[in-house]
Amino acid sequence: AQKITQTQPGMFVQEKEAVTLDCTYDTSDQSYGLFWYKQPSSGEMIFLIYQGSYDEQNATEGRYSLNFQKARKSANLVISASQLGDSAMYFCAMREGVNQAGTALIFGKGTTLSVSS
Amino acid sequence: NAGVTQTPKFRVLKTGQSMTLLCAQDMNHEYMYWYRQDPGMGLRLIHYSVGEGTTAKGEVPDGYNVSRLKKQNFLLGLESAAPSQTSVYFCASSYQYRVNGNQPQHFGDGTRLSIL
């Protein structure tokens, strides 16, 4: 079974609109972390936002927020007021466990976001 | 602000050739990782290291070897390149893991490797 599921291969949105990118995860650990990364067409991986499993409030970073629903095991990324520069591939990732072996990230397959004017 | 630097950025190899990819980080991170990215597959962990002189296998380690002789460097070797190893390779680094701590991995720009 996939640990990280991103069900939307592609999303289309107009400038200034908000968009939600879906991510569900599967883990039996109590302590884990959830990350979102952006990969523009130039190829680099850019860290956007982090949510810890014990965090009671949803994480926010500027125009990015993470809608964390622990019981549903979902960690959706919300981008407010989309900009043309937001067009990119977005990856949801999880780090699970409390030992050193759990430090690596497990990635979803990604969602391509296209923002039009 | 160098961060994580990967060399080379592009390389074409013939089947059976060997090569080494170099990753260097200047953030004094304890942990380093090698991933590969294939179309439709996301990123998958090849090997990782939690400190100088230590390495461990990830999800897809076959055909690769790694070494971490210095804290700032993490080398990925292909012993005998195969077409199935055609991919984009990413190196990443992070601080030591803390429970519920925000230690994002910082990525290099990737190495695009083609095996003919």
Supply database-style keywords:
heterodimer; A: 117 residues; mainly beta; 4-stranded antiparallel beta sheet; 50% strand; B: 116 residues; 0% helix
Quick overview of this protein structure:
With 117 residues, chain A is mainly beta. Chain A is built from no helices and 12 strands.
The amount of helix of chain B comes to under 10%
Main sheet record of chain B:
7 strands, mixed
- The secondary structure category of chain B is mainly beta
> Uncertain runs of chain B with pLDDT below 50, 5 residues or more?
none
Computed Rg of chain B: 14 Å
* Computed structural class of chain A: mainly beta
Mean pLDDT of chain B: 92
Shape of chain A: globular
Cα(first) to Cα(last) distance of chain A is 38 Å
Strand element count of chain B: 11
Low-confidence stretches of chain A: none
Estimated helix fraction of chain A: under 10%
Largest interface: A-B, 29 and 29 residues
Order of helices and strands of chain B: EEEEEEEEEEE
Q: Beta-sheet strand percentage of chain A?
A: over 45%
Account of the protein in words:
The complex is a heterodimer of chains A (117) and B (116). Chain A contains no helices and twelve strands. Chain A has strands at residues 4-5, 10-14, 19-21, 24-25, 32-39, 46-52, 60-61, 64-69, 74-79, 88-96, 106-107, 111-116. In chain A, strands 2, 5, 6, 10, 11 and 12 form a six-stranded mixed β-sheet that branches. Chain A has a four-stranded antiparallel β-sheet with strand order 3-9-8-7, with no helix packed on it. A two-stranded antiparallel sheet of chain A has the order 1-4. In chain A, β7 and β8 (64-69) form a beta hairpin. Chain A is globular and about 40 Å long. Chain B has strands at 4-7, 10-13, 19-25, 31-38, 42-51, 54-57, 64-67, 73-78, 87-94, 106-107, 111-115. In chain B, strands 2, 4, 5, 6, 9, 10 and 11 form a seven-stranded mixed β-sheet that branches. Chain B has a four-stranded antiparallel β-sheet with strand order 1-3-8-7, with no helix packed on it. In chain B, 35% of the residues are buried. The interface between A and B is medium-sized, with 29 and 29 residues.
